[in-house]
Amino acid sequence: MIDIQNMKLAECEALSRWIDPRYGFLSPDKFIPALEANREVYKVDCHALEGYGQDAEFLREKEKEIFPISFNISRTDLEACDIYQKIEDIVARYGLSRDQVHIEITESALNDSCQAMVEAVQHFHDLGYQVWMDDFGSGYFP
């Protein structure tokens, strides 16, 4: 994200893309639904945050600026594991501040239990995170 007032980078977004050696570029709409159906997408989501933590650690060592990041989680993340603890563990491991990590919950999460989503957003807010709604790149076309 660019701050239009000073035209400088203000924030980044972690986007999961898959480049398969056989099938080439696969957009999220090709692989995320299968991962969600098998309650495995949390591994991709946590991997994205883990990568940011590693990058932040590297930048910190080089005394470079670390920009906040937003990353996606899915409704199934809330069901498949203790996603709150997994996020907290990664944030702690890399010494990140919660204001550097913005959580984007996919729009599809609203299709099931609106009350569960309200509770999840509240829990993330209580932990100190910003929460945004996102479509997980489903509108992305190569």
From TrEMBL:
Q: Which InterPro entries match?
A: Cyclic-di-GMP_PDE-like, EAL_dom, EAL_sf
Q: Show the stretches that span the lipid bilayer.
A: none
Q: Which residues form the signal peptide?
A: none
| Gene Ontology MF term list | cyclic-guanylate-specific phosphodiesterase activity
Enumerate the spans annotated as EAL domain: 1-142
User: Please, which domain of life does this record's source organism belong to?
Assistant: Bacteria
SMART domains linked: EAL
Q: What is this protein called?
A: Diguanylate phosphodiesterase
* Taxonomic lineage from the root: Bacteria, Bacillati, Bacillota, Bacilli, Lactobacillales
